[in-house]
Design a protein that fits this description.
285 residues; seven-stranded antiparallel β-sheet; 3 helices; disordered N terminus
Length: 285
Amino acid sequence: MMAETPFLCVVTLCTLMLIKISARPTTFAEDFKAAWSESHIRQVDGGKAIQLVLDQSTGCGFSSKRKYLFGKVSMKIKLIPGDSAGTVTAFYMNSDTDTVRDELDFEFLGNRSGQPYSVQTNIFAHGKGDREQRVNLWFDPSLDFHTYSILWSHKHIVFYVDDVPIREYKNNQAKNVAYPTSQPMGVYSTLWEADDWATRGGLEKIDWSKAPFYAYYKDFDIEGCPVPGPANCPSNPHNWWEGYAFQSLNAVEARRYRWVRVNHMVYDYCTDKSRYPVPPIECHA
């Protein structure tokens, strides 16, 4: 037994160090709070899941209690079933700053019944956004929960749907491309009306006779460097998301990424010549 004691101590120490920067799926109240319209946020299964409600009076939203600088955030979400045209369910990270905000967006755009759900991603870095991409999901996201994740490291930002990468934004600061590296971001989600643009560019309006609309969340998982927190955490090269295996897409992820872009991408700002006659530098960096 004596020979095993040092090993056990090392394992325990590593575990304690990991606890400082990571968390596993928790209850809503442990890491999150209502951001607006708390009456429209309902806890389910003892707080392990929540229901967001949108009706004619208001939508609602929640936010993390802390901000984070680098890491990975994930949630399982079940989106609005049936006719959800004009609604937007958003899951995103935001620095909550004004002119120089950083933001990483998932926006799930409602649809008329029978049409595919689209997910729009956008990236704001140093106050500059307008980097929208849209992908039609290859499944019905209202039938069951699916996992949506954002990985944010010094090397790249990756948006995942059920571990399938649908977008990668690389750190090309060396080529004068803005990249979020210094501002901690909170984790947010909202359910709201946006029928002036959300479905077919605003042509399809929300049908309030179908209200109230519901979206469900569970398995809230934040693994990152909390701010305030250990000052050396964000720059620590030993954080798992900074490891060699996560510095780029692996072979399986790269193949899945190509499949998504070839078969399911429906809009890319990089190829929108009406907006950008000359593609932004990050599009060919």
